[in-house]
Amino acid sequence: MENDTQRTAGGTQQLATHGLLVLFGIVMIYPLLWMASSSLKPNNLIFTEPGLLSGAWTLRNYVDGWNQLGIPFGQFFMNSFTIAVISVLANLVSCSLAAYAFARMSFRFKRPMFALMLGTIMLPFHVVVVPQYILFHALGWVNTFYPLIVPKFLAVDAFFVFLMVQFIRGIPRELDDAAAVDGCGAFGIFWRIIFPLMRPALAVTAVFTFIWSWNDFFTPLLYLTDQQLYTAPVALNSFLDSTGESDWGGMFAMSILSLAPIFLVFVVAQRHLVQGIATTGLK
């Protein structure tokens, strides 16, 4: 009888826990559902009938929103995709090389430089906005993709460097010694031994870099002035007009389409993402 009582109490507690998780999940996903519902409503019904299932649904917002800005929205998707893909490739190469240097090589001021790199993680991005803008303006890079892409080739994302350093430190040094005996130099050890074994950490870097680059609004807004060069987040902001009528339906429709690449990337890479985060945290 006592075991039955304990089993019943455990089942009730488990049911309550799952109920709370479902409730919190609904609360978290409700804004996305509301945006998807609003993208199917005429503008005059979005705020007057805010319910998920109220109002007459139509696909007109997707048709009109695609060409609302005078340029097919696919152009903005292509701009964002170009920046995100190049940023991913640049981060994978530069951050992995920097991490290999900090984790395996010996050089002067290694520890102070590593500490300085970690310090940049705590430095707010807005502190360096003005110096960076002055530098890029002097180089003639304003209104180009260069300010958004070139820094990625210089391993400026200290978080990913630190992530890879921790992962490389968990790889046995005996593998390096064996490769050195076979005639591999420093770069050969990195390219043939370390880099292939870093797949989980590289997957985490690739996914987060793509998401952060795709969602970045402030930096493209700062450097891009030609509408042809706008990224998707900056283009979405153009649907809002403070002096006239804003196209809320078109903005919500294009926002839903803008979420699709991120969703696909996460679904495809979620196994590698979880494995990478778990593996880099083992040490």
Cα(first) to Cα(last) distance is 46 Å
- According to CATH, the homologous superfamily of the largest domain is MetI-like
Low-confidence stretches: none
The helix content, as a percent range, equals: over 70%
- Which architecture name of the largest domain does CATH use? Orthogonal Bundle
- Overall mean pLDDT: 86
- CATH fold call of the largest domain: MetI-like fold
CATH class of the largest domain: Mainly Alpha
Shape category: globular
As an assembly, this protein is single chain
Structure summary, number of beta strands: 0
Comma- or semicolon-separated keywords:
about 280 residues, mainly alpha, 2 domains
Describe the structure.
- The protein is about 70% helix and about 0% strand.
- By secondary structure, the protein is mainly alpha-helical.
- It folds into 2 domains: about 1-60; about 65-280, MetI-like (MetI-like fold).
- The longest helix is centred in the first third of the chain and has 37 residues, at about 1-40.
- It is globular, with a radius of gyration of 24 Å.
